[in-house]
Design brief:
Keywords: Cell membrane, Membrane, Transmembrane, Transmembrane helix. The chain is mostly helical. 71% of the residues lie in helices and 0% in strands. It contains twelve helices and no strands.
């Protein structure tokens, strides 16, 4: 096998690429560039497509999605901002999933030995759409972590992308509405969106806490049934 095609070589290249992407995010802060708007002559449809592409690259480079969603609402308003944010989310998830699948899956699958990792791998491999939909609806699992964990599992492309597109709509819409109405923080739209964000975060924290304790609880084993010894009594003569 060629050295460049070895699993650990590809995994090392993936780590270097992700570290470089994270460093670029810290230095250049691309989320600020997205919030500055677009040239006046650029059509809205073209602006949405360009924004979605930039959003996808930023999301794959670990830019926090809430900042990108707020920027989408601030630039395009509620409806066009939601289209741009959801499209960028699916694109960013696809980029991360593809990188993890091609460059990391073969090297990391032998290490799926812990109870949590085995359980997550089994769910994503057998029930990809249902599992990813639950992960996307509840914002307790980091976006990038869910992408790469799904990539290491045997989850297929169609269920991963479809669950991402559907499951991220509620939380993404709340941030987009908040960004679109940020200029009037006392408006009902801003208050409702902010309330939804707070409630969903609290629910996600409660679900994660409950799941953590459930996994941490030791398995209760039933004691083995103990049968009393059978004593054969010899017949006594007269």
């Amino acid at each position: 096998m060629s050295l460049l095609l070895a699993p650990w070589t590809r995994l090392s290249l993936l780590v270097v690429l992700l570290v470089a992407a994270g460093a670029c995010v810290l230095v250049y802060e691309p989320q600020r560039l997205l919030s500055r708007g677009w040239p006046p002559g650029l059509p809205v449809g073209a602006g949405v497509l360009v924004f979605a592409g930039a959003y996808g690259l930023c999301a794959a480079a670990f830019v926090p999605r809430p900042l990108l969603n707020l920027a989408a609402g601030a630039v395009f308003g509620t409806w066009f901002g939601l289209v741009a944010a959801v499209g960028g989310t699916v694109l960013g998830a696809g980029i991360s999933f593809g990188l993890g699948r091609v460059m990391g899956q073969e090297a990391l699958r032998p290490f799926l030995r812990g109870r949590w990792l085995k359980a997550a791998d089994a769910q994503l491999s057998r029930h990809g759409f249902r599992s990813m939909l639950a992960v996307r609806i509840f914002p307790g699992v980091p976006f990038a972590a869910a992408n790469y964990l799904a990539a290491v599992s045997r989850c297929g492309w169609p269920p991963f992308l479809l669950a991402t597109a559907l499951g991220t709509v509620p939380n993404t819409a709340a941030y987009v509405v908040a960004g679109a109405s940020a200029s009037s923080p006392g408006s009902p739209a801003f208050l409702v969106s902010f309330g939804f964000i707070a409630v969903s975060g609290a629910v996600a924290a409660a679900v994660a806490w409950r799941g953590r304790h459930r996994l941490a609880a030791p398995a209760v084993r039933e004691p083995a049934s103990v049968h009393p010894p059978v004593v054969g009594a010899a017949p006594h003569g007269p």
